[in-house]
## 1
Amino acid sequence: MSQQVWDELYSEVGTKLTPSPIRELVKYMKKPGMISLAGGNPDPEIFPMREFQESAAIITERGKEILQYGATGGFDPLKEYIAKWMAARMGRITAPAEMCITTGSQQVMDLFAAVMLDPGDVVIVEEPTYPGATHALKNRKARFVTVPCDAEGMRVDLLPDILEQARQGRDRIKFIYSIVNFQNPSGYTLSAPRRKKLLEISENFGVPIFEDDPYGHLRYDGDHEPTIFSMDKSGLVIYACSFSKILAPGTRVAWVVGQEDVINKMIMIKQGADLCTSVLAQGLVYEYCRLGYLESFLPKIQAHYKKKRDAMDAAFREFLPSNTRYETPAGGFFYWLTLPGVNTRDLFFKAIERNVSFVTGDAFFPNGGGEEDLRACFSYARAEEFPEAAKRLALAISDLSS
Ligand SMILES: Cc1ncc(COP(=O)(O)O)c(C=O)c1O
């Protein structure tokens, strides 16, 4: 009886909710002996627990402030720290009114979507893209137009035609979503010329860019590409970053920077969402940064993940079939494998039998596709396990064809 009442009352979004494809696969992964290349979690072995404990001294020193409700836009000392620390990346010290601290950068998607989207509006996304983003945008009834990627990131050369076509179909295109560095899931980085081109297109078409950059600090080879935000003169870029991958995702502390008016609107939406991001968490993160630990931790985790990346590269090179296609990512957490002629959904179940898991490519294609692709993550499992993981994956591939 009560179910019927609920079913009649759910909103359209509530009625159509489906579990995320990744969560659906998770239930198969909980077997003893499983090597997981699936979840994109940071490595808990290097969480800076002692330093965080030390940072908790801020509770004694500033408890009256950080155990209280805080400003919706964020804890001022943390905002100030981020603005200075990020100045080289942002091209300048951004003003406090241009920044909002958020509860994870996941919340940025939701806030930005609330500010920007009416039901049926279109967002341009990369193909493949991060399903957490499309999930948040779908919650606001967005539709997606996708742009394929190659090793240099989004194929911006295709974008003008795609935008033109969408316009002619009377789609209301609200923004372009790009994960610019070591993309989740592909590991690709948008090259500097493409960043420039993307900005030009954004200006020509009057379509803003959402530059999502949670992995940008995790570069293992080469030099940083300039952020699109730092090249932008017209205020059409909003930039999101997070402490999740460079410190600990349990902090749920992230931030967004952009034009004051947009940020202000996001703050107003956030007031109705959670009043403010945990001030306690912001205080701890601030103190950790103030003590200089973030700056010393970054080279440590870069070296740590570089080793894991190299171990995965060596294992894949040694054990995977020679027609497997992938690029070695210059940073981040992910390898994107293309296995010609292999359906990775079918492969997934064979791989589970062999005790290795990954995420199937289709999870990253909001409009369908990715059947021959998969994402393998090197951040979480132990590097010593990668040769065995690659061997199992290769065996699962041959199981499929036998
Ligand atoms: C591309 C991308 N954006 C945003 C997020 C959300 O991160 P958080 O909410 O922990 O900051 C993730 C998490 O994996 C991600 O991969």
## 2
Amino acid sequence: MKNRLAVGALALWVVTIAAAGFVFLHGDTAKAPDGRTAILVSPGQRDYVLSEMRALLVAVRDITDGVLHDDRGKVIAAAHSVGMAAAHDAAPALMAKLPLEFKRMALPLHKGFDDIAAAAQAGESTSALGDRLIGQMDRCIACHAAFRLRAER
Ligand code: HEC
């Protein structure tokens, strides 16, 4: 009897870990009609992610402006506004819905903006800064090609 209980507890434990692992890897997703992976979120979570996205677009615009006119202060401020510090405020409920692959694309993006700020600070040439920015935009493109958001309820 004791043995049975132990096996039952162990089985439950394995199932729980497997389920947690599955959620960690896949988040809360479905196949979208356009072939991308739809991340299933609440309307509020969708608004939150999209407002973050618009902030990224503003930062890319301001960095481009700063690089073009060699205004390092502008590059640094804009890049920092979307750096790692901006990546840590997402709510745990949203984080659980995001698939691992999405997070693996999002984190290097934020880190890359910190790198741009550091490089601008260190006096890197504007053409090298421009190359970094293009590399960052490749990340925007890759994620947009793979994922979309679907608001539920
Ligand atoms: C880790 C994934 C990911 C990365 C990286 C990413 N995005 Fe997005 N972005 C999304 C998703 C998902 C959507 C929603 C697309 C949809 O539902 O069709 C989106 C939507 C947007 C939107 C639309 C906002 C709105 O209000 O409708 C803009 C603008 C945007 N992204 C800009 C950017 C820019 C600029 C970058 C790069 C600097 C970037 N994104 C990088 C995932 C990403």
## 3
Amino acid sequence: MVRELADGEMRVVADAPIPLAICRVKDEWFAFENNCTHEDFPLTEGGVDGTEVECALHGARFCLRTGEVRAFPASCPIRVFPVHVEGDVIQVELP
Ligand code: FES
């Protein structure tokens, strides 16, 4: 899995109990709820710019590290989760 994702790519995590996605930015890994808080739209339809993900629908941006809103029209943060990488395996800590 680790080698399958290039820098700046996102991927939906199938079979997760919530809409979940992971993203790689250089050697950092991020996991986040794959749902824009503006109008419930999958963030994986958008793009990654540095450590921000941008919603494709209306352009809201969120920090991948903290989930905080970086650009409107969203006003609520997304949930982000700790990620552990061991070898080729990515583990996400869900609450
Ligand atoms: S649904 Fe994401 S910005 Fe509107």
